[in-house]
Amino acid sequence: MLSRLSRPKALTVCALPFVALLATAAFAPLPFSVAQPGMTANVLGENKGTPVITITGAPVRDTSGQLRMTTIEATNPDTDVRLSDVVDGWFRADQAIMPRDSVYPSGESTKEIEQHNTEQMRQSQDAATEAALKYLDRTDDGVKVTLKLSDVGGPSAGLLFSLGIVDKLDGDGSGGDLTGGRTIAGTGTIEADGTVGAVGGVALKTQAARRDGATVFLVPKAECADAKAELPKGLRLIPVTTLKGTVTALTALEKGKGSVPSC
């Protein structure tokens, strides 16, 4: 036979498991990564003393302005993220709390993750080169492109690599620069057919871009809302879906003619 507890005692008994759960959560590692704005690099220039884009087999233009690829920095996959870190990051505009599996492949060691990211970067560079040369109709001209960017992995610089190749070889197609002398930043994967794909952490990447002098940010169209969420003052968003559309938008911006899309 069960005895009846008074209301205060019943609340106390019910609260004990909840308190224990909170205590466990406060000290247990959680499946999250803490991310913040990372480095940016001008693909038209050098990174750590080495040209990011080297082209042989065709004349190369002198360019002005900058095309800056952007990154985020996340806690290492083996770093323990606690409840206090999550709460702190939740209320900070310069940090984001992201599921660890969305940042790093699950079930892999740190070394395997580094190898995975390096391979993704290599594939992205190959696709970026193919997309740019296809756009310029130079796939059979014997043009060789070498891309080098130290300490950066993953596929999200693909669009900027392609734009850098196009700018160095052809500019806006009529003697001008794609940048119009501006510092333009952006992010987005690229397929060999020129399709631009979504990436993660765009709200943090816009902060990195503005910090490093950009006034225009190219964002995959599907991520406009994320980019606008914490958009720094003085940074203009241009949504993009293809390499051709991106070049068209930048040319319109440079010449002050035609429609420039916005989020």
Automatic annotation (TrEMBL):
<dbReference type="GO" id="GO:0004176">
    <property type="term" value="F:ATP-dependent peptidase activity"/>
</dbReference>
<feature type="signal peptide">
    <location>
        <begin position="1"/>
        <end position="28"/>
    </location>
</feature>
<dbReference type="InterPro" id="IPR020568">
    <property type="entry name" value="Ribosomal_Su5_D2-typ_SF"/>
</dbReference>
<dbReference type="GO" id="GO:0006508">
    <property type="term" value="P:proteolysis"/>
</dbReference>
<dbReference type="InterPro" id="IPR008269">
    <property type="entry name" value="Lon_proteolytic"/>
</dbReference>
<dbReference type="Pfam" id="PF05362">
    <property type="entry name" value="Lon_C"/>
</dbReference>
<protein>
    <recommendedName>
        <fullName>Lon proteolytic domain-containing protein</fullName>
    </recommendedName>
</protein>
<feature type="domain" description="Lon proteolytic">
    <location>
        <begin position="154"/>
        <end position="236"/>
    </location>
</feature>
<dbReference type="GO" id="GO:0004252">
    <property type="term" value="F:serine-type endopeptidase activity"/>
</dbReference>
<keyword id="KW-0732">Signal</keyword>
<dbReference type="InterPro" id="IPR014721">
    <property type="entry name" value="Ribsml_uS5_D2-typ_fold_subgr"/>
</dbReference>
